Amino acid sequence: MKRTVYDTTSRRQMVLSTRGMVAASNPLAAQAGLAILRKGGNAADAAIAAAAVINVTDPASTGIGGDCFALYFDAQTKHITALNGSGRAPANLTLDDITPLNGDIPPRSPHAVTVPGAVMGWYDLLRQHGTMSLKEVLGDAIFYAREGFPVAPIFGESWRRTESFLQHSPNTEDYLPAPCVGELKRLPGLARTLEMIADGGPYAFYKGKVAEAIVETLQSLGGKMTLDDLAEHHSTWDEPISTTYRGVTVYECPPNGQGLTALLALNIAEGWPLDEFPSPERLHLMVEAMRLAFADARQYIADPRVSEVPTAALLDKSYAAGRRNLVSPDSAMQPPSFGLPMRSSDTIYLCVMDGEGNGCSFINSLYMGWGTGIVAKGTGVFLQNRGSNFSLDPSHPNVLAPRKRPYHTIIPGLATRDGELWATFGVMGGFMQPQGHFQVLSAMIDDGENPQDALDRPRFCLVDGTGSSILALEEEIPVKTMARLAELGHTVQPVAGIGRAVFGGGQIIRRSPENGVLMGGSDPRKDGLVAAF
After folding, report:
1. Sign of the CA dihedral 112, 113, 114, 117?
2. For each successive 10 residues of the chain (533 residues), what is the average pLDDT?
3. Sign of CA dihedral 361, 366, 367, 370
4. Judging by beta carbons within 10 Å of its beta carbon (0-12, 13-18, 19+), is residue 344 exposed, middle or buried?
């Protein structure tokens, strides 16, 4: 693997340690996770502590009104498990109940709310892999919600820009007025809810006063969710899906998540010698691989417990070779179509590695900023809008159906080399996520970049996750490269300033199998931090 010199300046250096590391998009969250590791907790314990704090400090991006997914590497068994903490559509919600907006479920409507899966996901991750209770790991989150936290710069600016939206959303009084950067902000409703969960476990959320508040709020707005929908929610554990890329085995959670998309792109790109970043030729090939991957993902990804998803066939290397042959070096495809495999039967991301070699790749989200914008009255809990990703086409695998999980954008990533933990990684941000996985992995594997340098690299983004979408390019990519991509037929859009949010934000921790040294990076596009000891 070679290291390539390119024109950008890093704001940060890679962090190194041996005893434990937490990388998160808020410094208080990273430190909360580190405190758990110092108390003897493991990677699972620290992940939930960090996730809970980000629920408080970045409430537009994540929260207990949303969903979570995790990949966990057990150092003793070398086994990787995939947690699906996503919720399902209400049992009484049907296509006939939806008044579409541009052919989709309106993203801010009560019908876009699926059962929040995060709290049960937190509990199940601790029960399966952790050593601590919810009460033990929620302490810092409760403190910051009750006593106040200083508002971070990047998130604080985004909070200010969404103040008008919050003013016109139900039950948002705790979040108004939008605080200034550096202001101490308290969230009393959320503090009470977190305290109930700490004392009563997940059933304090899915039954009783919190559940009643969620249902009463949604039904008052025309929603169909019931107390039974909440009480019957459960997480699922799956075997992860994977592919190999130049000797590294990359793992993702299986559908209904879109991790399959990143693996499809890696499979296609493996047949090309990618080097000389950021040459237009390399970027062109990577963008085309991503277009093809999205074409398949948007056709096939659905809840596999309801609809057939040909995952194994899509990940077959021979299928990737056929898709690769569709790519022209001289012109962009606009748009690609999905393939026909031979069938064989705003978000937060954080990662943790502990001193024993366990690794947790964890992601938690409300989907769009502030989710639906609907707060369950008196709880401080914003409710997610994951249901807006359902299709309303009755013939589509991802069509809305009662108690079905929707196509899900949030994806944690994990990689091994020769059976040993190599990296936990993720890039948050809607349909940017598989594109971010693809780009940071290529930087580390093809070019030998360290985690921080891989995250610092300027990125591309197919902005709506379709083959025909605009190709956003971060401004540090040379103008000549952008011009050449436009000549090849890409609809290029240079992006700078606050528009950089489209490129997401990531965290990476790598582990050296030789000496156990941990190497961490945190995305400069966010407020984050790598905390280590």
Report:
1. positive
2. 43 92 97 98 98 97 97 97 98 91 89 98 98 98 98 92 96 96 97 98 96 98 97 98 98 97 98 83 96 94 95 96 94 79 67 97 95 98 96 94 96 97 95 96 96 96 77 94 95 89 95 95 95 97
3. negative
4. exposed
Give the model's pLDDT for residue 344: 38
CB-based contact 96:392 (threshold 8 Å): no
Return d(Cα 78, Cα 29) in angstroms, integer. 27
Amino acid at 529: L
- Contacts by 302-306, CB closer than 8 A, 24 or more apart: 302/255, 302/256, 302/396, 302/397, 302/398, 302/407, 303/255, 303/256, 303/398, 303/404, 303/405, 303/406, 304/254, 304/255, 304/256, 305/405, 306/401, 306/404, 306/405
Q: Are 39 and 485 in contact (CB under 8 A)?
A: no
Q: Is the dihedral of CA 5, 6, 7, 11 positive or negative?
A: negative
CA distance 408 to 288: 22
Helix axis angle for 259-269 and 317-324, nearest 10°, is: 70
Angstrom distance (rounded) from CA 209 to CA 306 = 31
CB atoms under 10 Å from CB of 279, counted, come to 17
Which residues, 6 or more positions from 405, have their beta carbon under 8 angstroms from its beta carbon?
84, 86, 87, 88, 89, 114, 256, 303, 305, 306
pLDDT value of position 266: 98
Pairing of strands 492-495, 471-474: parallel
Give the integer Cα–Cα distance in Å for 144 and 185. 9
Distance CA 60, CA 451 (A): 26
Can 236 be counted among the known catalytic residues?
Answer: no
| Amino acid, res. 527 | D
For 320-359, give the DSSP string: HHHHHTT--SSS--SSPPP--PPP---EEEEEEEETTS-E
In the set 114, 347, 379, 409, the catalytic residue is 347
pLDDT at 125: 98
132-137 long-range contacts, CB within 8 A, separation 24+: 132/36, 132/41, 132/45, 134/48, 134/197, 134/198, 134/201, 134/202, 135/198, 135/199, 136/36, 136/41, 136/45, 137/36, 137/41, 137/45, 137/46, 137/48, 137/49, 137/52
pTM beyond 0.90: the answer is: yes
Q: What is the DSSP letter of 104?
A: B
